[in-house]
Amino acid sequence: MGSDHTPSYPQGEGPHLGFHFENFWLQQRGFVEAVWARWAEAAASPPRAFRAVDTWHHCALLARQLMQGWGSNLGAALRNHKEAILQEIRSLDLEADRVGLLADACSHRYALETSIMEIYKGEETLWRQRSRQN
């Protein structure tokens, strides 16, 4: 007779699945909706289940897989977006040093600064959470 329990290991021992839920994801547009949709999809097509816990494990597995992919894709997208914003700010700064900026360009630069600050706040939340985990 087998056990339906997943073994838990002390940190740093045993298999490492590499999954950590990041609170930062909750701030991202579409994340909660995507998780709910994946959960509903999994619940609508459960595996051959003997108990309700089997269905729950199936739903949790598929939701975790979605979140892992979400985290990887989000990280890459944010890095690219951040670099594009910083490059545009540098370009506007060079233009400002050469000939000055029109009011529209100044407003755009400040909007870019606001965007980059939001990204930095999100990164700070992420690293603060990670520092508590280790």
List keywords for this structure.
mainly alpha; elongated; 134 residues; 3 helices
How does this structure look, described?
The protein is mostly helical and 134 residues long. It has one domain (23-133). It is built from three helices and no strands. The chain has helices at residues 31-44, 52-98, 103-133. The longest helix is centred in the middle third of the chain and has 47 residues, at 52-98. The radius of gyration is 22 Å and the shape is elongated. The mean pLDDT is 82.
Helix content: 55-70%
Overall tally of structural domains: 1
* Oligomeric status: single chain
Rounded radius of gyration (Å): 22 Å
Summarize the structure.
With 134 residues, the protein is mostly helical. The protein contains three helices and no strands. Helix 1 packs antiparallel against helix 2.
Layout of strands and helices, then pairs:
Layout lengths: L30 H14 L7 H47 L4 H31 L1
Helix pairs in contact: 1-2, 2-3
